[in-house]
Amino acid sequence: MKHKLLLIIVSLFFFSLLSATQTNIQLLNQATEAYKSNDFDKALSIYSELEKKIQKNPDIYYNIGNCYFKLNRIGLAILYYKKALVLDSSHALAKKNLNFALKFTLDKQDFENQNFISSFFSRSFFSLSLNALAWVCLILFIALIAIIHVFLRQSESYTHTKKMFLISLVVLNIIFVGWSASRFYIYKNNKEAVISSPKVDAYSGPGESFTKLFTVHEGLILKVIKVDNAWTQISLFNGFTGWIRTSTYKAVAI
Predict the structure, then answer these.
(1) Arithmetic mean of pLDDT over the chain
(2) What is the C-alpha to C-alpha distance for residues 28 and 249, in angstroms, rounded to an integer?
(3) In terms of CB atoms within 10 Å, which of 63, 118, 154, 186 comes out highest?
């Protein structure tokens, strides 16, 4: 009786999973058709529904970004391209469209003009997605365990070459684990945000009674330092800091 009940529960689970998958595929096809027909509002509505159903999917974020761009909402387009890249830093189309969308912002994005060394390091550090790094770490760890097992069984032929190979494999494991840990830390502590309002004034303190310092515009990428209810202290990539209304930006963090 228990086995039959378990079988029923498992069957219901897989049936509901299959049904949900088919529904999502239908919605995805509808969104694609709406986008191709230039009905970007409808496409955005469907993609937004899929965003709730399929959480943390870089392709969904990318498509939402495309819809916002077509609707001339540059700030939100940049936001969703960034979200896609947070999940998959190797997403080539999201990178391409983000760089294109940044050209339509009024404020100069200073981080675009990094020197060669900084640019090379940044590209290398984010060349693999978190998922890819996790798989590499798993494969390297399994390989290390397997090699240690083989070497222990062949201790009489434990040559210098084998020793160096084992050390190299250990070093590779350490490097990739450290790389993955650093990327995961950045992912969990992402302080980036994008201005979503057309024009935003920044002040020296949390309120309009303080001195106005500068003005930023839709699409500008910044970092959040501190949130104080209706006001947020932010930092720009050129080093400027100020306070803006919390309602004027959207956080990139997922």
Answers:
(1) 85
(2) 28
(3) 63
Which CATH entry fits the domain spanning 192-251: 1.10.260.40, 3.90.1150.180, 2.60.120.460, 2.30.30.40?
2.30.30.40
| Single-letter code of the amino acid located at 89 | S
Q: 61-82: buried (b, 16+ CB within 10 Å) or exposed (e) per residue? A: bbbbbbbbbeeebbbbbbbbbb
Rounded Cα gap, residues 125 and 175, in angstroms:
12
- Residue 62 CA to residue 67 CA, distance in Å, equals 9
Residues 60/64/67/68 CA torsion (nearest 10 deg): -160
Residue with tokens 């940049």: 78
Record: fold of 2-109: 1.25.40
Q: Quick: pLDDT tens for 188-225.
A: 888 999 999 999 999 999 999 999 999 999 999 999 99
C-beta separation of 116 from 220 below 8 A: no
Residue 20 has pLDDT above 70, yes or no: no
Sequence-ordered alpha helix ranges (H) in the chain? 2-36, 40-53, 58-70, 74-87, 92-102, 116-125, 130-153, 160-188
Is the CA virtual torsion 161, 163, 167, 172 positive or negative? positive
> What DSSP assignment string belongs to 196-230?
-SSEEEEESSSSTTSPEEEEEETT-EEEEEEEETT
What is the residue extent of each domain of the chain? 2-109, 130-188, 192-251
